[in-house]
Amino acid sequence: MNAPLLQVDKLVRDYTLPREKLTQPPPKVHALRGVSFTIEAGRSLGIVGESGSGKSTLARIVMALDAPTSGTVRLLGRDLNALPREELRQARRDFQMVFQDPYGSLDPRQTVGRIVAEPLAAQGATREEQRARSIEVLESVGLRASDAAKFPHEFSGGQRQRIAIARALITRPKLIVADEPVSALDVSVQAQVLNLMQDLQAQFGVTYMLISHDLAVVRHLCDDVCVLREGTIVEQGPPERLFRAAQHPYTRALLAAVPRAEPPE
Amino acid sequence: MCLVAAALLSFFWTPYSVYDVDMAAKLQPASSAHWFGTDAFGRDVASLILVGSRASIAVGVIAVSIGLVIGTALGLFASAKRGWWEEVIMRIADFGFAFPAILSAIMFTAVFGPGMVNAIIAIGIYNIPTFARITRASANAVWSREFVMAARACGKGAFAITIEHVLPNIASVLIVQATIRFAIAILAEAALSYLGLGTQPPQPSWGRMLAEAQTLMFQAPMLAVYPGVAIALAVMGLNLLGDGLRDIFDPRLARKR
Amino acid sequence: MALLEVEQLTVTLQTQRGPARAIRDVSFAVDTAGTLGIVGESGSGKSMTAMAIMGLLPEGAKVEGSIRLGGEELTTKTDREMNAIRGNRIGMIFQEPMTALNPVHTIGKQVAEPLRLHRGMNAVDARKKAIALLDRVGIPDAARRADAYPHQFSGGQRQRITIAMALACEPSLLIADEPTTALDVTIQKQILELIAGLVEERRMALMLISHDLGVIAQNVQRMLVMYGGSVVEDGSTRSVFANRMHPYTMGLFDARPALGTPKGAKLATIPGTVPELADLPSGCTFAGRCAFTIAECHTTVPPPIEVGLGHHARCIRLDALTPTLSRREREQQP
User: Fold this and answer.
1) ipTM more than 0.85?
2) Is there a contact between C269 and A50 if contact means CB atoms under 8 Å apart?
3) Per the omega criterion (within 30 degrees of 0), is the bond before B202 cis?
4) B156 touches chain A (CB under 8 A)
5) How close A137 gets to chain B, by Cα (Å)?
6) pTM
7) Which pLDDT tens digit goes with each residue over A188-217?
8) Quick one: which of A211, C62, B196, B63 has its CA closest to B209?
9) Tens digits of residue pLDDT in C176-192
10) Which DSSP string do the residues of A97-128 spell out, in sequence order?
11) d(CA C48, CA C36)
């Protein structure tokens, strides 16, 4: 039996705030209160949550950029937080991330070619390999080989997000964690990037863990959805069921709050 | 703006001309033979000014480099490590700040003896906390940006991130700061020389020229003007140079040209 | 006479690459207590239009055309004269509640500020009115919390506070530029309901700018669709939603991932990207990206053509599009 692609078990993450009174223990923020889910290869998962739900914390912990207070994150059966540093670094070729802000996630002082090749360079690939693969991924996301010599500020938001996606693809990862990848983009650009992500799913066999506050976006790319609220998963299941017959009141409130694109009679 | 900076820069690179002392002609006003006249020892003031710039530049460059290299390294280290290390380094920097700059330079040279080398070391040391602090603050801001998180997500180590991502992004801040400190270093050297603690005779120095000119104020007032103006121009030119350099290094502005 | 009349407004900005028209020949009107929505993406000129009305355009911007508030021409006013109107007769709410409030002043002081500035109220009366306003916008325990600072409030609450500030002097026109974009969807609903309630209660005119079609559909009676600085379509919300005439409007509507689309279906996209201001074509701004472009589109600025009652679209190819339209109508019939 194959291990699932990602298995997250009872994740808890607390943050201690600065002490307010000398006599009392410092207050704690419970960002995640025991989150568990599984992602099978080929079945993308959507995480829906609003601000304060803990979704960004979850993304960071899954990407092993932050350690949980308790609980485990297993990628292909291996506990990421238990791996020695060198092995973790190598394991990173299998999971990459796309960030929300197309303006902040690219180093303004580096050329696009270098930015896109960075994950590969961190794995120790040669210059030629880096160059070849950079061109390959840039073309996969609809950009040109000549774009590799340019700087991020020469591109629009949608194009920058494509560059970010190209960077996430270069090591041929199995899992891509996308944290609000289209929220900062205009609607028509969103559509282009979502279509692209869909194509890449088919073309490269990549599975997404997509975090978004926008249910429709999640619907478009994911086979399963979890609704996250204040650090716990309140509902989980396939999108069609959730959107047609949501069981938890919070999910229903979220769905009801989305303004419908039909003027009232 | 770059042109002005370049022009002023060339001002300083022509100093390596005359270095004679001619005792015979003392205290002459400006003439065709001697453009700025002569000083109490009959030396050509123009040459003295030009050669004096050598001292100023040397002090400026070396002292600032000391501060820059050591201070930046400390700042980057503190920012990358955070926690405990950061606190310790910053407290040491604060300690450095506690002593007024010129005073500590004076103390240093008083203890280790006057002379250009010691002046350079003294000024260099007192530059370190400034650079450390500025580097740390700017570096911290860069560390929190998303592209650094992206680099960490690739598995890049802290050292690689510091060199490849943090340093280029704080470079413009450091450059501007370096030019400002250069200007201050020149002033500091002038002050030290004025007090007799910096460059020693017979090596010319603008500060000492000012000191000597003081006593001769009523006989040859221009003797004070030349070094004063030289110092002022140097400082101004450096500031402009800093602005120009910073603009050159910004890839966003590079598009304009 | 409408409350706000904008006629043939053209704004030229000084960009790095020379002068570029950010707003091209825009005309519309808002009645007293009427609601107008402006929908568009980045670079469409929708926020710039609001800035032009408020007199807050960047340095070096050239304004041609006319903007009249209650019959008074605004484009010729000096900055000082506009100061008397901003916050007083026109209130504005911005997108980022985090940055719209000054972090070092209490919210009570900030809400009272327009009252003291424009109405000359003394501190005590202004504070009383401020508390009443804060209460009306839904800040609990307003009297006590008036002395709190912005950072002690959530994003949604901060937006409520900026709404209170905008309303303080009972303006006749409220401009809301993407007021809910930065907020969670559940808070968004509350804020929009609050704005709708206040607009009705005080009989204010509302100009709501958004990129979200859902927000527009639910909150305004008339709407404009902007692209590249011009109004490509305008009409009553119902009419525009029912019959999208302009190719850009159609593209915009089709590109939304709707909750009903099956997974795996491709989203219809508008090919290409919005060109920079300086690169916009001189004819129809959408020429080139539009699937129905012909040679003439690049050279002629399309005039507004009436396609329904009060519904206009700027496109010279509307006849060619009618077959698409009838097919769409047929599709929508049950």
Assistant:
1) no
2) no
3) yes
4) yes
5) 16
6) 0.78
7) 888 888 989 989 988 888 999 999 988 888
8) B196
9) 999 988 888 888 899 99
10) EE-S-TTTSS-TTS-HHHHHHHHHHHTT--HH
11) 16
